């Protein structure tokens, strides 16, 4: 029985993908928010949402920890900078993910973002579709779902909305980029304000990370050219899930970005990173701290010294969760170069085109291990 018969799937996302024979295919996948609304019965969980391996890590069988916390105010003060830089380097090498506090983004800016995101997902499906432009592509833009590559693969328990915030394309309409929702009316304005602040934070961190590795402070930042560097915003919505032991919010992956800045709200304790071979649930404070994670492109630029973490999101019973990720990338048409860190001159990564890297990432994802980065490895 197909899921459409098994459940009353009245609402679907249309997803395009290139199949294993290189052919462009389009398929329909259920809108999770609408499935969750139907109040699925526990022992009748839709098969398409059963993750493989079947048991995702639940609270009982994995570790849990607070990631390192980096204080941006300490990075700015002479007396405290040196120690905080050392803590930053350790966090980026060992965890690949860290919280930042005193980042300077006003609560009001963050609250506005949370409000418009909740406002968008609070609309009916019909209103969402009517208010968000369509963007038919295979690179995960628009309102829909990530990593769909076949008709029968396990699906993530998530709905998401991805937009390009920079560079601003003067010809958005013809390039199909008019995907910003028109409702809530201040959606774009609120998110763009946050993105502007995010860029400043991430530029500062790129300099701090370089200095923390005893490199020239612009060693990474100079590869992010301000006018052409790219910021994609992905809003993730994870509805409550009746079977958190079977379904997964986002399957394991690394981010194909330089840096990712993540704001989560709704509930916490859902994001997990693989650390020392264990899935570790990140205990994040329920405040306005932001989470930074190293993406594949920065791992390549740092010649493998910084670690782009393998991460996933688990689902939660009766609790919804939102996150907003800003993916910060060097210009799509540029090439990134690894900078050798430390005494050992051995290069493990090579120069790669950003667009080539990202399109290969989407071509081969999802994968069961950190495979995409092999594209940039010197073998
Ligand atoms: O929701 C989260 O905590 C993480 C989201 C994520 O990994 C992503 O959007 O790439
Ligand atoms: Fe991610």
UniProtKB/TrEMBL annotation:
PROSITE patterns membership: FE2OG_OXY
GO MF annotation list: metal ion binding; oxidoreductase activity, acting on paired donors, with incorporation or reduction of molecular oxygen
UniProt xrefs under InterPro entries: DIOX_N (IPR026992), IPNS-like_FE2OG_OXY (IPR044861), IPNS-like_sf (IPR027443), Oxoglu/Fe-dep_dioxygenase_dom (IPR005123), Plant_2OG-oxidoreductases (IPR050295)
Pfam families: 2OG-FeII_Oxy (PF03171), DIOX_N (PF14226)
Claim: Glycoprotein is one of the keywords in the record: no
Family listed: Belongs to the iron/ascorbate-dependent oxidoreductase family.
Record-given protein name: Fe2OG dioxygenase domain-containing protein
Lineage: Eukaryota, Viridiplantae, Streptophyta, Embryophyta, Tracheophyta
């Amino acid at each position: 029985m197909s899921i459409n018969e098994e459940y009353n799937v009245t609402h679907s996302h249309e997803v395009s993908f290139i199949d294993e024979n290189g052919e462009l295919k389009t398929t329909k996948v259920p809108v999770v928010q609408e499935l969750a609304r139907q109040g699925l019965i526990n022992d009748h969980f839709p098969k398409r949402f059963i993750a493989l391996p079947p048991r995702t890590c639940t609270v009982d069988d994995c570790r849990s920890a607070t990631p390192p916390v980096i204080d941006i105010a300490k990075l700015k003060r002479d007396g405290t900078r040196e120690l905080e830089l050392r803590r930053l380097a350790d966090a980026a090498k060992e965890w690949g993910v860290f919280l930042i506090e005193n980042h300077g983004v006003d609560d009001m800016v963050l609250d506005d973002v949370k409000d418009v995101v909740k406002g968008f997902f609070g609309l009916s499906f019909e209103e969402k579709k009517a208010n968000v432009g369509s963007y038919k592509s295979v690179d995960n833009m628009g309102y829909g779902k990530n990593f769909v590559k076949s008709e029968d693969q396990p699906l993530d328990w998530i709905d998401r909305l991805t937009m390009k915030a920079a560079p601003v394309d003067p010809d958005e309409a013809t390039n199909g980029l008019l995907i910003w929702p028109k409702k809530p009316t201040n959606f774009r304005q609120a998110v763009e304000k946050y993105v502007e602040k995010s860029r400043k934070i991430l530029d500062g961190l790129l300099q701090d990370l370089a200095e923390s590795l005893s490199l020239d402070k612009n060693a990474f930042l100079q590869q992010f050219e301000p006018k052409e560097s790219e910021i994609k915003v992905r809003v993730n919505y994870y509805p409550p899930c009746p079977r958190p032991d079977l379904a997964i919010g986002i399957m394991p992956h690394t981010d194909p970005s330089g840096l990712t800045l993540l704001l989560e709200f709704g509930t916490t304790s859902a994001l997990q990173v693989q650390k020392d071979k264990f899935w570790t649930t990140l205990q994040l404070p329920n405040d306005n701290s932001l989470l930074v994670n190293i993406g594949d492109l920065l791992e390549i630029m740092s010649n493998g010294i910084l670690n782009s973490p393998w991460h996933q999101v688990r689902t939660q019973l009766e609790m919804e969760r939102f996150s907003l990720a800003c993916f910060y990338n060097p210009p799509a048409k540029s090439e990134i170069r690894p900078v050798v860190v430390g005494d050992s001159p051995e290069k493990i990564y090579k120069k790669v085109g950003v667009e080539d890297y990202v399109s290969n990432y989407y071509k081969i994802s999802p994968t069961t291990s950190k495979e995409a980065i092999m594209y940039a490895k010197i073998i």
